[in-house]
């Protein structure tokens, strides 16, 4: 069944690329508001949040058309202090990036080994300026760190999520397009905003595109990537597959959105909401005025031939009737997808392992969704920790699985695995006794495949190395 439904992703994958040179001149580009939100400086260190803010400010987009908002749901003094420091630093950082055409516009990336290629064939003047900026960068970091070391500056004043960026920005800058990023993300290509505009401003795609989703990637992946964190299958196979069907889903962040679609539905939605605006959007007359501006907004569209900005690829997969053939073919198909994208056999193996883990542990998501559907669950957002735990990072880099803290989530996996192991030995015993090799071959093969795939969990159970 799973195989069957998954084929939909392969029917008509679409891979898109944009030609920013064909966009209208900067003065004709529409406004863009970037939203970043944070809540807890202990889980989301302010220094890191400011990297995200600086990379957003440094986007290759006309300054008078770009507004960056940071919402602090925790209302912490250190966040306010941090953004003042970051905006001061941005005053030197952005001109530097523009002057030298820097691509890695997140200072942490530029000053790390990831930014090495930016250093090639550079003048003395560049090096001198770079040193000056590095000193200012360090100063900003030290100041924020010092301020954040005082307990009264990192306390959460208000832990009720406000998420008011959308309304506030509607009154202040009201950009017809918005970008949403988490506070631990940064953009690795400053032209991404312009690339997104290619889709919004193209007369053909603008009729049906409400958002442009960029793939999310981790920058500190280890070579072994045992947890399949690079999410190749999500952003290559699934998102491109959905794009060719009825369009991909939102990935939560990393998406440029048409503000009008967010407010009123699709780009062609009628004005019903505006007719009863007070009811839908509250009593702020200023905000309602801002909605009218957005509704009436006409972007300067340039007639770009569609083929020039979008490239599409179509693949049709054959239908396999025999189960064994289906199984082998699926594995080969998966392997080819991984290898053709520059991946390795280890990556293919890790993807299979994590796929099983995710499939089995998704039982918890199903329970959560059911509770929510039945109204048994209060709305609560649990925040993921972004502060690096050195011990866990070390384990990850060494390619060692870390099950600490995951005991509950792993329990269905443990149970299934133990059932598998028992069945495997039961099957072996039957083969030796009854000698029905042909009948048992398929079952024993599948059982051993799952056991080998789950080796790290078997090891954890046997040695009880982790909690
Ligand atoms: O009450 C809250 C809770 C969260 N956040 C912010 O929301 C963002 C996302 O929260 P996080 O815990 O980081 O979510 P993750 O589970 O790590 O990320 C997943 O969920 C996000 C929200 O849907 C998506 O944007 C990501 O792509 C996806 O990886 C962060 O910037 C948080 O600071 C708030 O501002 N207020």
TrEMBL record:
Protein keywords: Cell wall biogenesis/degradation, Coiled coil, Glycosyltransferase, Membrane, Transferase, Transmembrane, Transmembrane helix
Transmembrane segments: 406-429, 441-462
Membrane topology: Multi-pass membrane protein
Pfam assignment, any one: Cellulose_synt
GO terms, biological process: cell wall organization; cellulose biosynthetic process
Gene3D superfamilies assigned to the protein according to its UniProt record, in alphabetical order: Spore Coat Polysaccharide Biosynthesis Protein SpsA, Chain A
Coiled-coil blocks: 123-150
GO MF annotation list: cellulose synthase (UDP-forming) activity
Subcellular location, record wording: Endomembrane system
Positions bound to UDP-alpha-D-glucose: 43-44, 73
CC terms in the record's Gene Ontology section: endomembrane system; membrane
Keyword Transmembrane helix part of the UniProt annotation: yes
Protein name: Uncharacterized protein
Organism this protein belongs to: Lupinus angustifolius (Narrow-leaved blue lupine)
């Amino acid at each position: 069944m799973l195989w069957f439904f998954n084929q939909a992703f392969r029917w008509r994958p679409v891979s898109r690329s944009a030609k920013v040179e064909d966009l209208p001149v900067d003065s004709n580009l529409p406004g863009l508001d970037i939203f970043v939100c944070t809540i807890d400086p202990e889980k989301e260190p302010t220094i890191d949040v400011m990297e995200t803010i600086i990379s957003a400010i440094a986007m290759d987009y006309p300054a008078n058309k770009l507004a960056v908002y940071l919402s602090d749901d925790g209302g912490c003094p250190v966040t306010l202090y941090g953004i003042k420091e970051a905006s001061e630093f941005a005053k030197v950082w952005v001109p530097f990036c523009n002057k030298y055409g820097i691509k890695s516009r997140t200072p942490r990336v530029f000053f790390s080994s990831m930014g090495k290629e930016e250093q090639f064939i550079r003048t003395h003047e560049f090096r001198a300026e770079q040193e000056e900026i590095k000193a200012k960068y360090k100063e900003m970091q030290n100041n924020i760190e010092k301020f954040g070391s005082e307990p009264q500056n990192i306390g959460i004043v208000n832990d009720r999520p406000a998420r008011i960026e959308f309304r506030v920005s509607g009154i202040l800058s009201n950009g017809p397009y918005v970008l949403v990023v988490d506070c631990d993300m940064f953009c690795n290509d400053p032209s991404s905003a312009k690339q997104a505009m290619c889709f919004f401003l193209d007369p053909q795609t603008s009729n049906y595109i409400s958002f442009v989703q960029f793939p999310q990637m981790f920058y500190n992946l280890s070579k072994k990537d045992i947890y399949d964190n690079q999410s190749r299958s999500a952003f290559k196979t699934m998102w491109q597959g959905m794009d060719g069907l009825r369009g991909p889903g939102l990935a939560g962040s990393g998406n440029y959105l048409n503000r009008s679609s967010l407010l009123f539905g699709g780009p062609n939605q009628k004005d019903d909401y505006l007719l009863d605006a007070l009811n839908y959007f509250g009593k702020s007359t200023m905000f309602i005025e801002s909605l009218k501006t957005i509704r009436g907004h006409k972007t300067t569209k340039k007639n770009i031939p569609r083929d020039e900005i979008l490239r599409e690829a179509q693949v049709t997969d054959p239908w396999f009737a025999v189960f064994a053939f289906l199984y082998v073919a699926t594995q080969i198909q998966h392997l080819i997808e991984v290898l053709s994208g520059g991946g390795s056999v280890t990556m293919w193996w890790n993807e299979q392992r994590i796929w099983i883990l995710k499939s089995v542990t998704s039982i918890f998501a199903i329970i959560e969704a059911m509770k929510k559907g039945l109204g048994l669950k209060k709305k609560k957002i649990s925040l993921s920790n972004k502060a690096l735990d050195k011990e866990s990072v070390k384990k990850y880099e060494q390619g060692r699985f870390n099950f600490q803290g995951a005991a509950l989530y792993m329990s269905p996996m443990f149970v299934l695995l133990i059932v598998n192991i028992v069945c495997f030995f039961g099957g072996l015993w039957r083969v030796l006794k009854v000698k029905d090799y042909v009948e048992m071959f398929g079952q024993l093969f599948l059982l051993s495949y799952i056991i080998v795939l789950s080796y790290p969990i078997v090891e954890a159970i046997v040695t009880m190395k982790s909690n």
